Structures are given as structure tokens and as C-alpha cells.
# Entry
Amino acid sequence: MHPRTIFNDPRRSIRIAASLFVVFVSAIVLFGWTVGSSVLTRLHPDLPVMVPNTAACLLIMAVVLAFCGLERPTLRCRIATAIAGGLTYLIGSLTFAEYLFDAGLGIDGILLRFAQSVVYETNPGRMAPHTALAMMTAGPAIAFLCRKKRLGQLSEIFSILTLAIAFSALLGHIFGAQAFQGLSKANGMALHTAVSLAVLSAGLLVANPRSLIIGLFFSKTLGGAAARRLLPVAVLVPTVISFLEIRGNEWEWFNVGFGTAGGTLISTVLLVSFIIYFARMVHRADISRRSAERAMAEKEELYRTLVDHGMGLICTHDIDGRVISVNPAALRTLGFRQEEIVGSSIGKMLEPELRPHFDAYLREINNAGIAEGYIRLRTREGRPITFRYHNILITDGRTGKYVLGHAQDVTELLEAQAKLRTLSLTDDLTKLYNRRGFFEHANQQLRLESHSGTARGLTLMFADMDGLKAINDIYGHEAGSEAIAALAGIFKAAVRGADIVARWGGDEFVVLAIGSPEENSEKLVTRIEDAIEEYNRTSGKPYEIACSIGISAVEVTSPEAFEAFLHEADLRMYEEKKRKKGVLALAGITPEGSAIHLSHR
# Structure
């Protein structure tokens, strides 16, 4: 044990000091018996002697107390206290029986054989009856010291009885009351025996972790402060005043009447002073308590105001997800009444497929103490609302564990973000994906295609609108935009739902179709050709639309390889466009009347 630990713990310091004092006194007495020193055994010729049995019992109990007065005693400590207590009780009870039945049991002279001199008394070596009675109470006090709750409380009771016997003997010595010391002067309790027993019993009380009196004495409460101030006064003041009153009369300092009047006056003044002092202490403590209660009430009112008028969802729930409290803003948002939510599980407001995620959340908050994320709840009308939450686990000594949750309704924010994302990936004119949207979705499809279990082959088609410049020049740019939008609609309608169609830029389009070119290209181009022909026949527009197409098969290896396939399809499309221009020029056909021709690998 580190030395600083001992001195930082007042109870442990007192226990060690009491043990050392008793060890010192009892060892000195035993040494006095060994060398034949009456000064060490009785202190004064007119005082009773401390016999070897008494000194040995005190020494054993003090040594055990020094090492075994612990908050968490070991089995060795329990055995040691039981042996020490049992031996002390046995010696005390046998000695008391000798007085009770006027018989000698042979225990008085066990240690006298080692003595150099023997006092000439009726029963040499026999401890006083008051001492024997004190040993009968001190034995159980130390035997039950390291035991469980009820036995620990018995240890406190026996320690108090031992202290009372020792204190009465001390009063007998102070005031010359022989009956308080023993049956006669020859068998009275020795002065240093009374002091040692008082110190030892105080050490036993302090060492007992279940002692209610010592727990109160060392507490930081008002009761503890009162005990620390008033108990010493209650013990010392009457004793000192009575001692001065008696000794002053014996030494003829004053007569009996003056001593009695003076003692009464001093007792009254001191008693009134301490009552006033204690009353002021209680008064200050009461004022501080009321001030703290007002401050706490103001903080609680402020907290309640913030909770009740906050716009976010604030609630508490237990570790199983049952709602304990919820603020009005959350009730308004969800459309429930308080009695409909409090006591029910949050999981009931979730969609069935999301409840496993809620179970995972409960595990996370219980293990980590904090959790944050998104949760989608349903209102009373069934409308889904998404909340972003930040919850913490709180451990309260009074109410146990609960979760304090704070959440914000982010439904509109997420919807706006989704719209912005859609806009960032979508071409405004054609409502197809733009180039960024095409790459994002194409990369997802490429990742799927890279897994052999889902690979179905990919076909890449590049298309460029024919004759757009002529439409813009003759009919205006608005007509050109209508033509681009019409061709985009034809592409969208011609491909399958899983295919990716995008406006590459200007009058260029790209399609990533699922399936190999051998299966896809002819059918896809045929559908586009038929759709364009149908549009030109039924649109009523003064112009016709047409496009040139290049097709390439995609072999998934890396994003860089995909860029190469895009470039190859683009080249195929321009080769087709050049070929068509040559054919149209030979035939004398205008671009508006051009047809679709296909070039593929």
C-alpha cells in the first residue's frame, strides 16, 4: 500500500493509529512483566495493574485490527479476526465465570510463569471483572468485523458496548468512583487498560465499513458536520467541568456551592453557544439548499421551455426502445397524442422491413453509448417522415439507464437533395441522363457486368442527329430543340427499361444496352428506324428527323477501356455519317429526307 494512500484516507489512518497505540501499550506492559517493572504494569502504586492476559488479548486484537480492517477483506482476514475474537471472548468469559462462581479455572497464571515478579493480591494474574466483561464484548466486535451486513452491524453494537465499559472505567479513575473501575481496588480495571480498550473500540468502529455511526460521522452531509462538532463537546465538556468542580473543592480552591454554581454557569454558556452555533450552521445549510433548489428549478424550467418550444424531436426512451417522454413539437409532427406514444415502442412506428435496423440501433446505443443516423417513421395518417437523429445513453443513479434523443425532420431536405441530384444528372431539354448521369449509371452497370454471375454482355450505341443545322436555319432553333426532344423520346421508347439512354451533348446521344451486339444491334436499330418512320409520317412537322448510328461491343476490363469503346462507337457513327453524306449527294436527296443507315463491328 502506498504511504500517501493511508494518510489520504482518514478512517484508515485512525484505524492504523489506534492499532499502533494499543500494540505499543500492551507490548510495554508484557515487557514490564518480563523484567519485573511495576511502573510499566500499573503506572502508579495506587493504581490497579494490567495483568498479562489482558495485555496479550489487547495485543492480539490490535495486530489483527491493523491488518484486517478492510473494505474488501480476504478469507485470511476473516479467519484471523474469527480466531482473535474467539480467543478474546473465551478468556474474558472464563475469567468472568471465575468471579461468578468463585472458582479458579487455571487461566490466570498461564502467562505469570514468564514474569520476574508477582504482585501480592488475592488472585494474581486475574483480570478485573469489568475488564473480563469488556473482553466478552470486544471479542465478538472483532470476530464479526469482516462479515456481511447483519454480522457487521453486530460488530458495531459490541464495539459500542466495549467503548461504554472502557469510558465508564475512565470516569471511575477521573472521579475516584471505585464501582466504575471494579468490585474493589484490588480487582479494578487498570487505567491504561481502560484507555487501550477505548482506543481499540474506537478503531473497531472506524474500521467497520458497515458502521452507521462512523458513516454518519465522516459523511459530507449536515448530519455529519453536526456529529463531528457536537460529539466531542458532549464527551469532553461535562467530564472536564465535573473534574474541575470536584478537584477544585478537594484542593480547596473554592467551596461546594461555588463549584456547583460555576460548573452550572459554564455548562449553560457552552451549551447555549453550541446550540446557537449549530442553529446558524443549519440555517446557512438551509439557505444554501433553498438557493440550490431554486437554481435547479429555474434550470429545469428553462430546459422544459426549450424542450416544449423546440422545433426538433426531443424524446427519451428506455434501453428496449419504449418511449418515456416526448416534446410537443414531435407530437405535432407525427400527429399522435402523448398517451398514444408514451410507453409504446418506437419500432411500432417503423415500416416492417425497417424494424431489424431498429434492433441494430438498440444494440449500438447500448454498447457504444451513442448513435446517430437516419430513421423513417410513419405519422398517424401513414405519411413517411425521415428524421436525422443524434442519441446518447445516460446512466442515472436514480432512474437507471435511458436514451436521450434529439432529431430533426429532414424529409424536405432529402427530397430537395434528391431533386438536385436528379437535375445534376438529367438533361433539361430531353429529360434523359446527361453525360455525368450516363457515366454514373454506366459505371454501376459495368460493376454488375464484371461479376460472372450477372454478366449478360453490353452493347454501346452512339447516335448523331442528321440535318439539325438545316432545321435550325430554316425553321428556327425552337424547332431544332423540338426535333432533338422528339429523337430523344424515340430512343427512350425504343430501348428496354434497364438500358441507359443519355444525351451526350448537342445533337449526340449514347445508349448502353444490356446484351451482346449479335443479339441487340439489329433489333435495336430496327425499333429506332420504325419509330422514326412512324414519327415522320404522323408528326405533321414540315421536316423529317434522321440520325447516324455507330455500334460497338463492350468488353468490361477497366474504366479506361470503356472510354476506348466510347471512342470507337463515336468513330463508327462518324464513318456512317460520312458514308450517308456521299450517298445522299449522289442521289440528290436533302438531309431532311435522309434515312437511317447502320455501321457496326
